[in-house]
ETFB lysine methyltransferase (Acanthaster planci), 310 residues
Amino acid sequence: MFIRVIGSSLFKCLHEFSRARQGAHLQFPCRARSCHGNSNFLHPVMLGSDPRMSGHKHRRRKSCYHSNPTSLTRLQCTQNGAIRGEEISTIKQFILDNTVVTRNHLTPEVALRLMTSSCRLWSAPSEQSSSILAHCGIDEPFWAFYWPGGQALTRYLLDNPGVVSGKSVLDVGSGCGASAIAAALVGAKSVLANDIDKVAIQAVKLNAEMNSVAMTTTSRNLIGRLADHWDVVLLGDMFYDKDFTDTVTDWLRCLADRGTEVLIGDPGRIFLRDHPVRDCLVNIFTVDLSESCRLENNGMTQGFVWKLQA
Ligand SMILES: C[S@@+](CC[C@H](N)C(=O)[O-])C[C@H]1O[C@@H](n2cnc3c(N)ncnc32)[C@H](O)[C@@H]1O
């Protein structure tokens, strides 16, 4: 019923979650109903209660994170959480078949494989797109969209190469990989693209290759990890849940205290806007979103880049 109300496309399904929750919070896609059915589905990746949301407490799971039982038909992970080689090929083929290369966003310097209106899943009836995704073992394809917070952050990096040039960079929640790619393009010494969605990791790899940049990737949950040092940590559009915002910002404060430059791209989502961490954020960049981006993101009009003060 919900799906019918909002329309049939997968795109709408992902992007109109927040509209469905307007009564509660006017927030992000991740915490509302899923395109996998009509039940209230909370994306496991986004939940504070999910063990993957507290990196230091993270324990390896025998199956991959896809919680939908049907999705396990294809993406059965090995004992240590890795995806098998043939499954990587399946994922890559899925990405190639269901995205197009586009530069139609705020950072045309970066070519990205994204799901656009010319892709079959965009306009397929939601039941059909859900079934295709489930058959391929793909959960919500957040990596197939270039989120407004990520667009702002990436634009900032391309316009200000000195911020990352010659530095070690971690991009947390990399999605399609745009910010990580931009960092590599403008001369970062090393780039680690991190996303706990293993499908996103394959999207990042395809996009990095297409832009002829090198980087390493990991699907480990790094949140809470203090053992490594990064000169710069990037987060594009990651604040969509209060518990998650609490956890991540605690970690980010520790990193900033240790000398890491923490840069956050966000289009004004309430969990960041109304969070106490806001008092420690300095706005260093603002950009107007494109008309299509505004439409796709519930009328959000601008993207902001914030620097976390130590
Ligand atoms: C809204 S998307 C943003 C993607 C990209 N940064 C952008 O702006 O286009 C959020 C991404 O964060 C990832 N994610 C969620 N929780 C995470 C965690 N604990 N560690 C790393 N990635 C995470 C999701 O899989 C998803 O790809």
User: Anything to note?
Assistant: The CA atoms of residues 90 and 136 lie 8 Å apart. The pocket of S-adenosylmethionine is lined by residues 45, 52-53, 142-143, 146-147, 149-150, 172-176, 178, 194-197, 200, 221, 223, 236-238 (CB under 6 Å).
